[in-house]
Amino acid sequence: MQILFYDPMTPYAYDATMPLTQALGGTEATVIRVAESLKKHHSVAVAQQCRSQDNLSDKSGVHYLSFEAAQQLKPDVVILLRQYRKLEEVAQCFPKAKRYLWLHNMPSRELYAAREALIQHRYQVLAVSRFHRTAIDKRLQGKWFQRLLSLPHSRKRQSLPIEVIYNPIDDALRPDATPVQANRLLFMSSPHKGLAETLRLFTAIQQEFPEYELLIANPGYNNMALSLPKQARFLGALPHPQIIQELRQAFCVFYPQAVRVETFGLVYAEANAVGTPVLAHDAGAAREVLSHAGQLVNGRSLFSVLDKLAEWREKRPQLQGKEEFRLNRISQRWLRLLS
Prior knowledge:
Radius of gyration: 21 Å
Order of helices and strands: EHEEHEHEHEHHEEHEEHEHEHEHH
Oligomer: single chain
Structural class: alpha/beta
CATH superfamily of the largest domain: Glycogen Phosphorylase B
Distance between the termini: 9 Å
CATH architecture of the largest domain: 3-Layer(aba) Sandwich
Largest sheet: 7 strands, parallel
Shape: globular
Helix content: 25-40%
CATH class of the largest domain: Alpha Beta
CATH topology of the largest domain: Rossmann fold
Number of helices: 12
Strand content: 15-25%
């Protein structure tokens, strides 16, 4: 079987060598992990809108190529990443392929407009968590007036299948003997995901715990000009091995922001897998992905955050990640879906 991942939204060309050498966004890292695992069973290609036609990479066994080169393929399966506006285009380019729309972010309010194209071209929608599936389904149902306008045709309305496939983490991620820095908090996400709010909370908790420091890692695809409080500093854009090392050393991942929910939250899964707790606002997929609900707080309440830190200073939780997120399990899930 030939499988094509079709990525019209990535801001940079990526391949299997990049996680070891530079920072990656969660979606790109996930595509690489899944594609590289499926190559053991099928022919796999990843087409990217920003990859030039003469910049092809197949050293790992997966073909990373341009959209132009992808047009020459006759895949059995096409997996369109995130961009529902490309539904028609992909269906026309690959009319004989089985088609999937793999969403990663919160669904747009405009997703309802893509409903007919999804049905017409027989797409199956893929979500990254049960929370995400519910959010997608709600958008596809439309607002009340859209449902009202469709009543004359309600008998023709079809339900759209939405499957959940979690984002994978490496099989080898386990707690080890790395010393934990008791005063080190870690923010590990793009700045637009509530960094400004997190900094305000960090400044406030320093009144109670002045010894804390906050390290901030940014995957690098979104930069914001923010002034940092004392004992907060940027780590920059780190490759994956360094990300994991920072997670192992941190007292906790400090992510109490309530501005932007995570549809999965790779940092949740990876932090818990190496034994590091995540202080997270109880929203989005956090409760679903974190290995224990005791990591959740009300991120809008300074007292809730302070109480959790005080509790963990007395006894830091002993955690392990959920086995269902391991790459070997997620790969089997993909193989069952595609076959």
